[in-house]
């Protein structure tokens, strides 16, 4: 591409001084389609012609412009040459027309190298994009995408101009965030500076990946205080792919199992229910455990006993107080009665 750009720059700089003018100064043409270009001069001459394997134009003296016109170009390395025999010059002026002949791919597809089925989180995998029957390969760019995010560009330096099959690779290490992600590749032909816009492209079908990853328990419960004779529920939930099985166990005995989430209910808890409960999430060959300590909460019982004792003491004091008041009243009444007895006369 740099060579062609430099050549075009030289042509444009010297067009005012050179008697041979090409229009356009370079052409981009798809293999098997039509192409045309003009060669002209403002100088007097003895003849001008297009020298080319396909569509040659014989020497003509009576014109200032000749056209190379081809209905179907079938030469991958064609090099049209316009030459003019300028008067008063010993040698003819010549100019080559730069021609880029291209072919879009027959097919573009991607795959995981030496692997089928789901991928495992954290492992390395190689994706391969195969581009079939494309030319010229040195103008090919393979672009890798995840969703709509561009991940990588791959360029090629092979100078062959005829169609070839070409491959590009991408290394990935998927995470759980990549589950159900679409990876795809795109073949693009860079045909500057005379390229059609937009440039010729072809996309592969999306490669949708399933990521298997270890279960992770998301519940945050570590310990529970349970009032005696009350009910309590222990919840355990986990995320993973495939969906994990969640199991509660106590004293090495499985109590309850569930898919992704499991709830263990303890009714009328006593000291026999106190201890370490284990939640285990399993999926494929992975497992994760979390322990929850269940302890009896005697505060309610102690408070209840204290209240009962307080009430009993209060009642005892109240009864004693009432008895004391009653006895005092009787003594006072008796004393009053004695004071009111009449005196005997002498």
Question: Could you outline the blueprint of secondary structure elements for this entry?
Answer:
Elements: H1 2-14, E1 21-23, E2 27-30, E3 35-40, E4 45-51, E5 57-60, E6 65-70, E7 81-86, E8 93-96, E9 99-102, E10 107-112, E11 119-120, E12 125-134, E13 140-146, E14 149-155, E15 164-172, E16 182-189, E17 201-203, E18 207-208, E19 211-217, E20 223-227, E21 232-241, E22 245-250, E23 253-259, E24 261-266, E25 275-283, E26 286-297, H2 299-339
Parallel strand pairs: 2-9, 11-19, 20-26
Antiparallel strand pairs: 1-3, 3-6, 4-5, 4-7, 7-8, 10-12, 12-15, 13-14, 13-16, 16-17, 16-18, 19-21, 21-24, 22-23, 22-25, 25-26
Subcellular location: Membrane
Signal peptide: 1-18
GO biological process, one term: cell-cell adhesion
Question: Describe it for me?
Answer:
Keywords: Cell adhesion, Disulfide bond, Glycoprotein, Immunoglobulin domain, Membrane, Repeat, Signal, Transmembrane, Transmembrane helix. It is a single-pass type I membrane protein. GO terms for molecular function: integrin binding. Its main location: membrane. Strand 4 and strand 5 form a beta hairpin. The radius of gyration is 48 Å and the shape is rod-shaped. It starts with a helix and ends in a 7-residue tail after the last helix. It is of the alpha+beta class. The longest helix is centred in the C-terminal third of the chain and has 41 residues. The strands form seven sheets. Strands 13, 14, 16, 17 and 18 form a five-stranded antiparallel beta sheet that branches. It is built from two helices and 26 strands.
């Amino acid at each position: 591409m740099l060579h062609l750009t430099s050549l075009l720059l030289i042509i444009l700089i010297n067009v005012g001084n050179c008697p041979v003018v090409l229009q356009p100064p370079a052409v981009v043409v798809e293999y098997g389609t039509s192409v045309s270009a003009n060669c002209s001069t403002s100088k007097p001459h003895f003849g001008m012609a297009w020298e080319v394997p396909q569509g040659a134009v014989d020497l003509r003296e009576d014109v200032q412009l000749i056209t190379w016109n081809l209905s179907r170009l079938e030469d991958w390395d064609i090099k049209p040459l316009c030459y003019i025999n300028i008067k008063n010059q010993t040698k003819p002026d010549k100019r080559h027309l730069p021609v880029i002949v291209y072919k879009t791919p027959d097919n573009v597809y991607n795959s995981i190298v030496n692997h089928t089925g789901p991928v495992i989180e954290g492992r390395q995998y190689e994706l391969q994009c195969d581009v079939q029957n494309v030319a010229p390969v040195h103008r090919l760019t393979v672009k890798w995408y995840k969703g709509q995010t561009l991940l990588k560009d791959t360029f090629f330096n092979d100078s062959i101009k005829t169609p070839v099959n070409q491959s590009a690779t991408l290394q990935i290490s998927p995470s759980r965030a990549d589950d159900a992600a679409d990876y795809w590749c795109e073949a693009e032909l860079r045909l500057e500076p005379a390229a059609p816009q937009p440039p010729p492209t072809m996309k592969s079908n999306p490669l949708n990946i399933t990521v298997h990853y270890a279960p992770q328990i998301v519940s945050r419960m570590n310990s529970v205080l349970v009032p005696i004779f009350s009910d309590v529920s222990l919840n355990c939930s986990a995320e993973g792919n495939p969906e994990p099985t969640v199991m509660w166990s106590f004293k090495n005995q499985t109590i309850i199992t569930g898919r992704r989430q499991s709830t263990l209910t303890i009714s009328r808890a006593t000291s026999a229910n106190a201890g370490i409960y284990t939640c285990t999430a399993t999926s494929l060959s992975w497992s994760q455990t979390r322990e929850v300590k269940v302890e009896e909460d005697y505060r309610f019982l102690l408070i209840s006993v204290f209240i009962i004792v307080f009430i009993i003491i209060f009642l005892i004091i109240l009864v004693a107080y009432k008895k004391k008041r009653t006895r005092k009243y009787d003594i006072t009444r008796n004393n009053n009665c004695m004071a009111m007895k009449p005196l005997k006369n002498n």
